[in-house]
Amino acid sequence: LVGLLIAVIGVVLDRRNIALKRSEARFRTIFEQAGVGVAFIDSRTGVIRRINKRYCDIVGYTVDEMMDSKTFQEITHPEDLGEDLRLFQQVKDGVTRGFDMKKRYYHRDGSIVWVNLTVSPTWQVGEAQQYHIAVVEDITERIRAQEHEQELEQQLLQSQKIESLGTLAGGIAHDFNNIIHAILGYTALAAESGTSNSQLLASCLEGIETGGKRAAKLVEQILAFSRKGGVETSSLNLREQVEEAIQFLRSTMPATIELVSN
């Protein structure tokens, strides 16, 4: 009977060992073939105890190099390390059960690698803190695509600004052209009249003066609009200032744009 019992126990243990080995093999296959980087890290020292190939490919080191000489602190960008450590300390203190963050790693070749990092502890609150799991997804191309899109948006905005400046400059040139033609016209009339027609001469001089004042006013508006004029402290009638600004803008805007004021 004892022999039979021992045999049964042996069969049960063999089956358990077989099931355990199969389970370990499945885990090893999942671990090694995962599409994301996975690492088991010593929670006290930051030393990597186990790491899959995908993680190593992301940072450019071999499995042996990561296991023998690297810690996550060494390969983390300094600007992201403080937040990483702060969030992990909350996990160690039992404040949170894990965290997610975007961070940068230094690749072996010196380039920057952006990843989504997810950290989970392998211990329960009150247990000894031994290991935690770090899962990383390479999002470098996604970040670069976003940066490229932002660059294109900035270029478009700059192009629109330049186009607006061109429209503004064209409007100003048009106004100055009208003023200059008026001044030149009155000057020509004054020269032709000489002193024989004092009334015409006075009218021409008045027109020249008016044109000069219009030109001076336009320059004043341009300086105020660009905020490059001298700073003077004085009381202002805001309604008058707004009306002058609107008048100036209307004279420089294309006819396709309608400026409405209340």
Report the C-alpha radius of gyration, rounded.
39 Å
* Fraction of helical residues: 55-70%
Terminal-residue CA separation: 105 Å
Q: What is the succession of H and E elements?
A: HEEHHHHEEEHHH
Strand order of the largest sheet: 2-1-5-4-3
Number of helices: 8
Number of strands: 5
* Structural class determined from secondary elements: alpha+beta
Overall mean pLDDT stands at: 79
Largest sheet: 5 strands, antiparallel
Short description:
The chain is α+β, with helices and mostly antiparallel strands and 262 residues long.
3D structure, described in words:
The protein has 262 residues and is of the alpha+beta class. The protein contains eight helices and five strands, in the order αββααααβββααα. It has helices spanning 2-33, 53-59, 63-69, 72-75, 78-92, 140-193, 198-226, 238-252; strands at 37-42, 48-51, 99-106, 112-121, 131-138. It has a five-stranded antiparallel sheet, sandwiched between helices. The longest helix is centred in the middle third of the chain and has 54 residues, at 140-193. The termini are far apart.
Topology:
Elements: H1 2-33, E1 37-42, E2 48-51, H2 53-59, H3 63-69, H4 72-75, H5 78-92, E3 99-106, E4 112-121, E5 131-138, H6 140-193, H7 198-226, H8 238-252
Antiparallel strand pairs: 1-2, 1-5, 3-4, 4-5
Helix pairs in contact: 6-7
Task: List descriptors.
alpha+beta; 8 helices; single chain; 262 residues; 14% strand
